Amino acid sequence: MHPAEQRGRTGLVIQDPDSQVILERVGDDVAFGCENLGVPRDEIWMRVRDSLAQVGLDVALDRNTSALSGGQKQRLALAGVLAMRPGLIVLDEPTANLDPHGVTEVRDAVIRVAEATGATIVVVEHRVAVWSEVVDRIVVLAAGGGVIADGRPSEVLNHQGEELAARGVWVPQFPPARPRRAERGAPQTLLRAEQLGFGRNKRALGVPLDLDILSSRALAITGPNGAGKSTLALTLGGLLAPVTGAVVANKALASGAGEYPIRWKSRELLTRIGTVFQDPEHQFLKSTVRAELEVGPHALKLADAEVDARVEELLTRLRLDPLAEANPFTLSGGEKRRLSVATALATRPQVLVLDEPTFGQDSRTWSELLALLARLVDDGSSVIAVSHDLEFVDALADSTVVLT
Amino acid sequence: MIPIAAVNPVAKLGAGLIVSLFLIVTIDWVSATTALLLELSIIAFMGIEPRRFWLRTLPVWLAAPLTALTIMLYGRYGGDVYFEFLFIRISDGSVELALATFLRVLAIGLPAVVLFISIDPTDFADGLAQRLRLPDRFVLGALAAVRMVGLFLDDWRSLELARRARGVADRGRLRRVAGQGFALLVLSIRRGSKLSIAMEARGFGGDTPRTWARESRWGAAEWITLIVGLLIGVAATVVAVLTGSWTFIAR
Description:
- The structure holds 2 protein chains of 2 kinds.
- Chain A is α/β, with parallel strands linked by helices.
- Chain A folds into 2 domains: 3-124, 3-Layer(aba) Sandwich (Rossmann fold); 189-402, Rossmann fold (3-Layer(aba) Sandwich).
- Chain A has 14 helices and 13 strands.
- Chain A has helices spanning 26-36, 41-54, 70-82, 100-117, 128-132, 153-166, 229-236, 251-254, 266-270, 289-299, 304-317, 333-345, 363-378, 390-396, and strands at 10-13, 88-92, 120-124, 138-141, 147-151, 189-197, 209-214, 218-222, 244-249, 273-276, 351-355, 382-386, 399-402.
- In chain A, the strands form 4 sheets. A 5-stranded parallel β-sheet of chain A has the order 10-11-12-8-13, with helices on both faces. In chain A, strands 1-2-3 form a 3-stranded parallel β-sheet, covered by helices on one side. Chain A has a 3-stranded antiparallel β-sheet with strand order 7-6-9.
- Chain B has helices spanning 9-24, 29-43, 50-74, 92-117, 121-130, 136-165, 173-201, 220-242; strands at residues 81-85, 88-91.
- Chain B folds into 2 domains: 4-123 and 217-242, no CATH class; 133-201.
- In chain B, 36% of the residues are buried.
- By secondary structure, chain B is mainly alpha-helical.
- The two termini of chain B are 42 Å apart.
- A two-stranded antiparallel sheet of chain B has the order 1-2.
- The chains are: A alpha/beta, B mainly alpha.
- At the A-B interface, strand 1, helix 1, helix 2, helix 3 and helix 9 of A face helix 6 and helix 7 of B.
């Protein structure tokens, strides 16, 4: 049987909440699938209400979909799928972009739906812990194709857990290794937020903030989706202008470049504050991995020999050497993340700002990234990381700012 | 107050087009003035917040004098000539034509803007597909695409900041914008394909005839809207013909 003839029998929820909202109003968006399947009008609205109730999304039908949080958007997508009354629902990392609260929200909605409708649920997921208690069967696929493990969750995780963990699967019983920390120097203030109001379009989010960014220390920024974590990170990174107050660099960091990072030239930022964006694709400029790594050092006008040395070192350290001639856009998610971190490291900034560095990573890349960042901190740099990932925050951060 | 927001967007579009049609075939100032006065008296009763009205119609207020100025400097000459320099020739004819153009741009532009600020894209799409029977694949595809514009703006800002972070934002602005444009194109194609997967997963593009969750209503209010458009157009033409100033554009 061809899948195209089974339109509407299979529902799909994908990773990115923004890419699957189709219409502007909540009710219309849920109704979209029913309309396409030719369901009569009265029945559509009945189904819309049922589905929204099942996923626990208690908002007005004319609520604007862009005003929903990430967790709500994912439940909206699930409701849209449910309204089609499918026999099979496929979810592709449905919680990857969500804060811990959103993760539970969506998972519980999926379980409720499975129980209420009897539909088969297939979840594609890195993070086994979220689902291992609730699924009946786990299939682990090999990187090059083929199946590594297949069976009941308890059997698979108990018998093959260690092997799977070594391959990068997140097995709750075998958490990835945490780095051993070295002796660290005394912290010095590099950057200060003074009564900092941050936001876009001149509107400040939340109350003004005072913060000290210290050398040899890591700071985590956490909080729910939409609290402004990324905005704060970009403001501290000298990329967005503060709405009120100021971000001030001390003399050691500024080293002749002026007090306010936002007034620094783009080139002056390179050795002082490096920023790694949430979406690596936003910061790729060149058509090969090697050229991408050379951008920063070239902008600093380093000698060719020095550029080569730095690039080679990073390629090896981040396991990117086999990909040196590949196009950055063709890399896997984990490789893109490693490359985007490497591009920032190439200019050796004293402060490194990272937005969701562990998002969507397998456990192997996760512990490599963690080790790399821990070493930077131990060697005297300052790391600021925005993250939902509580384990990561716990392993790395010396202090945490929680935005609400 | 006239509840224009509830009127079917297709009727609003229709009324706007009808008025324009009457005003496009003539180039005199009397017809434009008549239409403009009638329109303004209707707009005054629509209950649009003044600030919103001026803000949204600002482009029209800017475009009208600029177009008029161009016509005044380079337009068809006739009667006394007041000023001449190279290709510039200001004459009785060009001044009159400029005035008529100024009024015409306002008479066509203002109602178009006012009618469109109250249009909801979803209702508009419903109207186009259900009332005008435009292909629903096309209409809904366009509707979904419009919703993505906001995401593109976010992408563009991120691209800009990322270039500053990469140390390449100090010079070569023109080249950088070109590169950013290309990057945005790549990102938008990815977003677009994700969206189309999401739409197809919800049964979009199948052979089953589609039903509509929202009925695009068409009743008295819609007919009245069209008739008002027609009346404005006819009134403008009649007044112009009676005063002897109606001038067919192709003359």
